[in-house]
């Protein structure tokens, strides 16, 4: 850790950047001179929402891909993912049962050959479920305080008709969910929260994909209340988060909050053009004390996704009130061959695995995600930053500020210009000047001289 700048007691302890022409590293920033061409002001006097972390999603595809690697490689990768020597992810999602990133066939914890099993006599984690649990346990052994969200894509097929839950199987489905939570708890894994249906408005009631189910807001409220009652009876402290879908339908989570004890909403990023991330700010104003997370935004590294896409969706969500953000997904295949039929074949991960070669590579999303997750600690508070501006040609500067529990101030800045930019950062009335590389993401870690800073 170096101290390139000190001004009136304010020290720039760490300056890390990655850029389009230097993807694959987190490098110390260039030293600044005495002048600047842009100004940013960090307001630490009015801290806003707390931050629980940033991360990605465990899927069947991820565990399948990791299993194709030598265990020694996976051990090193897990340390790189979940410790301070790497990118230290602290907020993770896991699929409960099958999703659209399931490469090895339809499954659930009680598929039962398609025949009804309302007593759940055939309930079992099954092989893919056991594989998922093994990796989640490895993660929790390394990072026991990780915030873990479990999301359900579909109940067993026999519980559905016209792609909706059959009413006579409501209690069976509740017991199915509780059995999953008890199995994880008995294995030493506490699931922080669950969502009862991933993207409940994704498909119409008549569609029949194995990995979706339609669930309207009234049904979601009913199932939420029944599940909370069963979890209480089983002494399970897992939370339920509402919705798990796009920001353009806020009436859905509003109904769930109004009808249940839920106080947290999970959003996806896919309606940013129609409804926008501003929906989080509006929702918070209408629901005092609500917590909000962005629980899915896809990565399409091999389909032309830009360098700034991941940091931009994280920044814009925390600017409007999110307490954490997740990328979809943790690992993808270089051959794009690990999705379920009809699922997201083009989805990639922050890690791309070559199963034939038994190797993996960390793509630019790994490094840009790490510039948030490595430096913004759980329990940090978001703070406003003045001076951002994005022009019509999509150049400009955008940033997000945080205060860590140790008092350090984190500023993450996108320079979307094709030239270097010298910026003055004002914190508590004290200026620090720093060079931002062209087309780059820069993380500044600032604190008072004499205070021991920890990454």
From TrEMBL:
Keyword Hydrolase: yes
Gene3D superfamilies (alphabetical): Glycosidases, Golgi alpha-mannosidase II
Domain (Glycosyl hydrolase family 30 TIM-barrel) ranges: 51-203
Superkingdom as given in the UniProt entry: Eukaryota
SUPFAM superfamilies reported for this sequence: (Trans)glycosidases
Listed GO biological process terms: glucosylceramide catabolic process
Domain Glycosyl hydrolase family 30 beta sandwich intervals: 393-444
Coiled-coil positions: none
Molecular function per GO: glucosylceramidase activity
One GO cellular component, as annotated: membrane
Keyword terms: Hydrolase, Signal
Family according to the record: Belongs to the glycosyl hydrolase 30 family.
Name of this protein: Glucosylceramidase
Naturally occurring in which organism (per UniProt): Triparma strigata
